[in-house]
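Researcher: We plan to redesign the surface later, but first we want a full-length starting point. Tokens attached.
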């Protein structure tokens, strides 16, 4: 649990998957997106506040 600075609440930061982007990638690359998206998901996607979508937290 973290304290979200943006909405001033204790929240549980989550990683959100962008399903629309995934579906588009599916259509465009016919499966090849997995190779691109999985490294992107683990390397670049930060955890976000589920309430305000902010990404600044304090312990
Ligand atoms: Zn928040």
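Model: Full-length starting sequence:
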């Amino acid at each position: 649990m973290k304290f979200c600075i943006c909405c001033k609440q204790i929240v549980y930061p989550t990683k959100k998957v962008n399903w629309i982007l995934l579906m588009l990638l599916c259509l465009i690359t016919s499966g090849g997106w997995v190779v691109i998206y999985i490294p992107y998901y683990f390397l670049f996607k930060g955890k976000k506040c589920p309430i305000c979508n902010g990404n600044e937290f304090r312990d």
